[in-house]
Amino acid sequence: MILKNKLTHKALDISYPEFRKKFAKELQDAFESYRRTQLNKYFYNFKEDNSLEFNFYFDLQWNFNNFGNSVWFIEKL
User: Residue 35 is inside which H or E element, if any?
Assistant: First the structure.
């Protein structure tokens, strides 16, 4: 997994388990933002929490980069 800093353009090459440990707070913030966005949609599109989490991690790169508030972004999985 390659992450890049938006400010310094420094690249960071880490494994997925290391990413989950090091960026746990950013992942949680991104997931909460994603969850709020999905739950604010029309009621017939309501999804349960398990499918929300699955969908978030299914497209992790896009969701982390767009819903997260971090200076790091995922360049390549």
Answer: helix 24-39
Provide the edge-to-edge strand list for the sheet that holds 2-5. 11-13, 2-5, 72-76
Characterize the bridge pairing of strands 72-76 and 11-13: unpaired
| Higher local confidence (pLDDT), 17 or 42 | 17
pTM: 0.86
Using alpha carbons only, give the angle 15, 66, 1 rounded to the nearest 5 degrees: 15
Among 64, 62, 61, which residue's Cα sits nearest to residue 77?
A: 61
**Cα–Cα dist 65/48, whole Å:** 23
* Cβ partners under 8 Å of residue 21, min gap 6: none
